[in-house]
Design goal:
Helix content: under 10%
Structural class: little secondary structure
Distance between the termini: 53 Å
Protein name: Prevent-host-death protein
Largest sheet: 2 strands, antiparallel
Strand content: 5-15%
Length: about 70
């Protein structure tokens, strides 16, 4: 039977993240994750468009009525 367990190696020491298995012998497959921290890349607009945007209407309510929205039909 195949069972999965999750562990990390830190400073050469194995640290179980789930229940520790107790096999008398086992065959293992090791997957190496290069970086486990998620990387969030923020997009930034080009400086050439800075200050050129305009607010045309109220930011809370739509400019046109809902019944005029083609996407709702």
């Amino acid at each position: 039977m195949l069972k999965s367990y999750v562990a990390m190696i830190e400073n050469g020491q194995l640290k179980w993240l789930t229940d520790e298995p107790k096999p008398s012998s086992a065959r293992v497959i090791v997957t190496i994750l290069e970086d486990t921290t998620p990387s969030v890349k923020r997009r930034t607009p080009p400086a050439s468009i800075a200050g050129k945007g305009k607010t045309l209407a109220d930011l809370i309510s739509p400019v046109i009525e809902e019944q005029d929205w083609e996407c709702l039909k």
